[in-house]
Design brief:
single chain, about 140 residues, 5 helices
Length: about 140
Amino acid sequence: ALIGALDLTRTKEGRGRELGFIGLAFLMAGAGALLYVVGATYAAAVIGSAIMGVGFSRFFAPSLALIQRASTPEKRGRVTDVFFVLEESMGMFAAMGFAALALPINAVQPILIVGSAFMVLVGFGALSALRRRAAVSDEQAP
């Protein structure tokens, strides 16, 4: 969704709204996940989980809107179906991946921290790209 939003902002009809929404959602979800994983208390886990949930919910709708704008009418349903399947199954695939690799329990937290930090960096990258796009637009305005 992030790559699609970046591409869409380069088109004439693209408004770039999806990029901002998705960037903020990645930032929130990653920050919540970091708090959840790094925090060693029940309260930190509850707060982190809530922040992560808000971030993921903010990612979902703009991603679907992006699919509707970027895909052709005959492919929209199929692309949306794939998006739903991926979104619903990723937790299960992550758990199966950890089990298949037979990771020791003390290796799971560092992997989750790296994944959370990556989400935060992606969110900052998206917002940075949006800011650069706005700066270029302002320079080109009459």
